Amino acid sequence: MDTNNTSRKEFLASLVTTGLVLAGCSSKKTPFETGADESVKPTGEKVKLLSVDGEVIEVDKAFLKPVPNLPAISNSEERKGIPGKKFVMVIDLSRCKNLRKCQAACNHMHHVHSNLNWLKIYPMDVGEKTAPYWQPTTCMHCDEPPCVKVCPVDATFKRQDGIVLIDSDRCIGCRFCMAACPYSIRVFNWEKPDTIPEELCGQPYSCETSVPQKKGTVGKCDFCPDMARKNELPHCVSACPNGTFFYGDYNEDSVTNGAETFRLSDLLKDKAGYQLMPELGTKPSVYYLPPAARNFPFEKGLENDKEKI
Amino acid sequence: MENSTSKVIDKNAIIAPLHGNGTKKKGALTDEEIISDLLPRKFGPLGMIWVGILLCFCAVGVFAYILQLKNGLIVTGMRDYASWGIYISNFVFFVAISLVGSLITAVLRLTGVHWATPLTRIAEIIAVSAITFAAIIIIVDMGRPERFYNLFLFGRLQSPIIWDVTVITTYFFISLLLLYIPLLPDMKILLATKEKTAFFKLYKFLGSFWKGTHLQFRISKKAINILCIAIVPVAFSIHTVTSWLFATTYRPGWDSTNFGPYFISGAFLVGSGAVTVAMYIFRKYYNLKNYITYDHFDKMGKIVVMLGLLYLYFNVNEYLIPAFKMKKPEEGFLDSLFVGDFAPLFWSAILGGMIIPIIVLLFKKGRHPFPMFICGIMIVVGAWFKRYLIVTPTLLHPFLPMHNVPESYKHYFPSWQEWAIACGSLAGALLIVTIFARIFPIIPIQETLIEQHEKANH
């Protein structure tokens, strides 16, 4: 997002919209809803404003109230995605020691319910004569997403930049997508998330930030498109001290973990990258690099694991 | 019960289109006797207790649902892995049981089987009440029921849920018409006999336009024929689509091309079981021994055996073939069914819900009313648990390990709210059937009269 755009949005956020009261968590109103508060008496003093559509409109001053946290972009923009992009992730399994910093950062930034994780780290291939490893698992943002296929109301959708998102304002909570996802990545807000700060509750939901999560709807890893718009990396990528996660653009053929940048095709070729369960035909956007020549032994990660394996 | 002799019945008006003379043959029943036998009657003390119990169950169910609305689905035992529980299996059960309406009414009618005529209305009301509660229970399962309208605002044709909504709605209306149209001549009889009953206005509202003319009979016969043909593909669709809710996913135990016929055969079996139970109860408590005879039980018993064997065949396909291969993702799932956590339930459902009833009903004495009743109950209860075994164990065996989640996420046992709502919905379905039988004749009077006259004239 360029600076011009930001200042325009700040201007809009400070001025725009009619006197609409956002009364805490219970309010379902969004700042885009029309219909002024009837208790406000017009003063007769008019103010010229720039509307969201770019038209100049005149509004009585009495109806003006600043709206906190106006969503940066509209729902239809969020559903389209960032033009020209195709986001991918590469996860280098040889670097993971189950520190769970990625998970903590993700949960914190998305205010995920304390029982749930969007990013899961599985101990894989645990057996006697196998070589176990830790597998951080995000949403695969499949190019043939089984979850999107089954959603009856288009609440979960695939964008042109490859990201699969959830519109929590539309989700009916049927959980068909959870049954359909072979990676079991989706979680459900069985109750109101216990981690949402009060001031966020009244904020309108944004598909790109996936905040605030709502009771009775499905949530999952969103590939942080809000960060991508700011030219920043997803929270998990920047939180990992070992540089396990690489994020980037398939079209640009480059991925980065912040410190190192690779040509995607070379990285996948050199390290024999693979996808999870490719035989299902879901065409994941997340690639794994095999846990060869590891930085840490598997046992190192057991210290951070709450559960016995 | 009304005293038949005190009623003056305009017999000619009732059977006018038949030109029947109503003469009494030896052993045959007169029209008056038939009508007075089959008229709906007030609840006795037993009926009152029955309705009271059902209402209690419904009330507890509603209370539990209010709690769920308030607190969210957290009140259920469902969690991220077992994200569908007994609500969904109950839904599948209701859809399954509703299929019997199409079997008894349409399939038997179209194939020229006439002995089942007295059973059509029982089958049809079971279908209507079950499909109603299937729709209700699916809304109960939703995390955001208040957004139900989104299905119509934003519905996407590629989702099997939309297919399900479409075919279930269609099936509901066809079933309702198949219940209503054959009821019209009976409504005329009710209007002629029960002048001052509480439901007089209802009968008048629903059926006063029915004069019983030749034209009306011809139209209604044609309509019923069209509906009977239409309902067969719709009935197949509702349960096939319901099976596709599972079969369109990748999960072990659901990822099966066998699922459509497997569900349909199971549905016909449980529906026939339910009709058998209803036959026994109505026969006993409404004194319908002359109308639901040993012969009916015998023939229903044979149908149940055939359907049971069919369902067993699909079960062999469904479980033994994957077990032969024991693919890695299927292994844990099959183990849990055959020897693991779900084994007691699984083998009870297979033995009690299929194999034992099939064996019992193979014998002529097994097809007497009482053993049929017991077998029917075993089939229905077995089928309910079978649906549970189709839904839940699969979800508890995902491809990736269940790791680092709260312990409650790794198992599923329904909470009391879920039990209350599920029982409430079952009670509600029974209540609809009970109240229907209170208001309308549960055995079609007009059609019984016609059959009697045909018998008399031959």
Tell me what you see in this structure.
The complex is a heterodimer of chains A (309) and B (458). With 309 residues, chain A is an alpha+beta fold. Chain A folds into 2 domains: 3-70, no CATH class; 77-304, Alpha-Beta Plaits (2-Layer Sandwich), CATH 3.30.70. Helix content of chain A is 19%, strand content 17%. Chain A has helices spanning 3-15, 75-80, 101-110, 146-150, 176-180, 198-201, 225-229, 235-239, 264-270, and strands at residues 46-50, 56-60, 87-92, 120-124, 133-137, 156-158, 164-166, 187-188, 218-219, 245-249, 254-256, 261-263, 286-289. Chain A has a 5-stranded mixed sheet. In chain A, strands 1-2 form a two-stranded antiparallel sheet. In chain A, strand 11 (254-256) and strand 12 form a beta hairpin. The termini of chain A are far apart. Mean pLDDT of chain A is 86; it is low at 1-36. By secondary structure, chain B is mainly alpha-helical. In chain B, 70% of the residues lie in helices and 0% in strands. Chain B starts with 10 loop residues before the first helix and ends with a helix. In chain B, helix 5 runs antiparallel to helix 16 (416-439). Chain B has one domain: Formate dehydrogenase/DMSO reductase fold (Up-down Bundle), CATH 1.20.1630. The chains are: A alpha+beta (309), B mainly alpha (458). Chains A and B meet through strand 4, helix 4, helix 5 and strand 8 of A and helix 6 and helix 7 of B.
